[in-house]
């Protein structure tokens, strides 16, 4: 990537092996919202995972949203266990940078979070977001329930229609189940980075194309209440 080569995802055999235990401890509390990062989470909350480029600016988008209980950043969709930031950025783990969003569906729906997701980045760029190039910057949604999967797919199709009408390319976002794709929390300094560094790099910018209100279109599939299973200890 440094020398202008097109980023390519590694195969499981090519990926770095990683390690059985993390090399750091994740902070216990969100620096803005004050709630637990890793749980346990209160009954009735749900979990959503979004990859939309550099997770510093992406996380702030979600913690600023009413109804979001906590957020944390990490790595998902790859093969390396307990990867480090440097390993992910090498392109040899297969992960993308992800924001885990824990939210109250009585205050903000999954469909509304999807609208924020689509409008906060350019989902047509493949392995990049703007000037950030690499497999770790790809657009991705990892779903925790069949209802989330259906809503995410329907929103993707709806956004493709308005993007196409506005002259944009085909969406490259992957929509995949989170169950088989472990979420590995990122290092402490990445958590709520832009709260700790208000003038820090953001790197998040959308296309300017709006998706529309999920309650006024046919893509707002309802999601049942109830928290998705928290990641197992081996996945932290």
TrEMBL record:
Residues 49-202 form the Peptide methionine sulphoxide reductase MsrA domain. It catalyses: L-methionyl-[protein] + [thioredoxin]-disulfide + H2O = L-methionyl-(S)-S-oxide-[protein] + [thioredoxin]-dithiol; [thioredoxin]-disulfide + L-methionine + H2O = L-methionine (S)-S-oxide + [thioredoxin]-dithiol. It comes from Streptomyces flavofungini. The keyword Disulfide bond does not apply. GO terms for molecular function: peptide-methionine (S)-S-oxide reductase activity. InterPro entries: Met_Sox_Rdtase_MsrA_dom, Met_Sox_Rdtase_MsrA_sf, MsrA_MetSO_reductase. Pfam families: PMSR (PF01625). It is an enzyme of class 1 (oxidoreductase). SUPFAM superfamilies: Peptide methionine sulfoxide reductase. Has an important function as a repair enzyme for proteins that have been inactivated by oxidation. Catalyzes the reversible oxidation-reduction of methionine sulfoxide in proteins to methionine. The keyword Calcium does not apply. This is Peptide methionine sulfoxide reductase MsrA. Belongs to the MsrA Met sulfoxide reductase family. It comes from the Bacteria.
């Amino acid at each position: 990537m440094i020398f202008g080569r097109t980023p390519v995802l590694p195969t499981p055999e090519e990926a770095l092996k990683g390690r059985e235990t993390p090399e750091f401890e994740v902070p216990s509390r969100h620096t803005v919202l004050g709630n637990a990062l890793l749980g346990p989470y209160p009954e009735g909350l749900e979990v959503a995972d979004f990859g939309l480029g550099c997770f510093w600016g992406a996380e702030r988008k979600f913690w600023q949203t009413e109804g979001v209980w906590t957020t944390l950043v990490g790595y998902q969709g790859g093969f390396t266990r307990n990867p480090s930031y440097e390993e992910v950025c090498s392109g040899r783990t297969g992960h993308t940078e992800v924001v885990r969003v824990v939210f109250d569906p009585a205050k903000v729906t999954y469909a509304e979070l999807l609208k924020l997701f689509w409008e906060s980045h350019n989902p047509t760029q493949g392995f990049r977001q703007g000037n950030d190039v690499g497999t770790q910057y790809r657009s991705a949604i990892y779903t925790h329930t069949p209802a989330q999967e259906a809503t995410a797919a329907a929103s993707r199709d709806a956004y493709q229609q308005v993007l196409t009408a506005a002259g944009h390319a085909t969406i490259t976002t992957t929509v995949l189940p989170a169950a088989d794709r472990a979420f590995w929390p990122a290092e402490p300094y990445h958590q709520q980075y832009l709260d700790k560094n208000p003038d820090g790099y953001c790197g998040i910018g959308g296309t300017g194309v709006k998706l529309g209100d999920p309650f006024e279109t046919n893509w707002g599939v309802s999601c049942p209440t109830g928290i998705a299973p928290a990641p197992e200890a081996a996945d932290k």
